[in-house]
From TrEMBL:
Keywords: Cell inner membrane, Cell membrane, Membrane, Transmembrane, Transmembrane helix, Transport. Residues 31-161 form the Tripartite ATP-independent periplasmic transporters DctQ component domain. Part of the tripartite ATP-independent periplasmic (TRAP) transport system. It is found in: Cell inner membrane. The chain crosses the membrane at residues 21-41, 53-71, 91-116, 136-158. Belongs to the TRAP transporter small permease family. The keyword Cell inner membrane applies. This is TRAP transporter small permease protein. It holds the Pfam family DctQ. The complex comprises the extracytoplasmic solute receptor protein and the two transmembrane proteins. It is a multi-pass membrane protein. It comes from the Bacteria.
Length: 179
């Protein structure tokens, strides 16, 4: 279990780093949006590339931070119901939900998204909008984001099993005697 907990720690560190890096894309998206609006209203001109860049950035934030959100335990939950259960029961609900719902969904989307990305990359797909951007970079976000979510799902499973085995005080806490 020690090796698995180290793997879990590496996955957590990866999603933590990605999450903190992607935070900055929110600022970039705001600046692009404000700049585009300013140019559109002051110079009466615009570019589809800037509009598409805005939604590419939003997509990156949403997709690449899914694993980070799971790491932080900030995803949508059924807290009203689950909060009435003991901690062990809550952990079992998380384990069952992760194995039977999160993982199959995330793996399926990741697998189905990969050929879409590859086809787009192979043909150098461009937006159908005049002056639009390449499509493959945004299509790569789908399998990449769901890969990060799958990895974090594995990490959360490891931590919850460790909790049930008495190796952790809380599913998201460090191991006993370690910091």
């Amino acid at each position: 279990m020690g090796i698995l907990l180290k793997v879990s720690g590496l996955i957590d560190a990866l999603n933590e780093a990605v999450g903190k890096l992607v935070y900055w894309l929110v600022l970039v998206a705001v600046l692009v949006s404000a700049g585009n609006a300013t140019i559109r209203y002051t110079l009466d001109t615009s570019s589809n590339a800037w509009l598409e860049l805005q939604w590419y950035l939003f997509s990156a934030v949403f997709l690449l931070c899914a694993g980070y959100t799971l790491l932080r335990n900030e995803h949508i939950r059924i807290d009203i119901v689950i909060s009435r259960f003991s901690k062990r029961t809550q952990v079992w609900v998380d384990i069952i939900g992760t194995i039977f719902f999160l993982m199959p969904m995330a793996i399926l989307i990741m697998v189905l998204a990969w050929p879409l990305f590859m086809d787009s990359y192979r043909i150098h797909e461009l937006s159908s909008n005049a002056g639009g951007l390449l499509r493959w970079p945004v299509k790569l976000l789908l399998p990449a984001g769901f890969l990060l979510l799958v990895l974090q799902g594995v990490s959360e499973l490891i931590k919850r099993v460790a909790f049930l085995m008495g190796l952790r005080d809380e599913p998201g806490e460090k191991m006993h005697g370690h910091s």
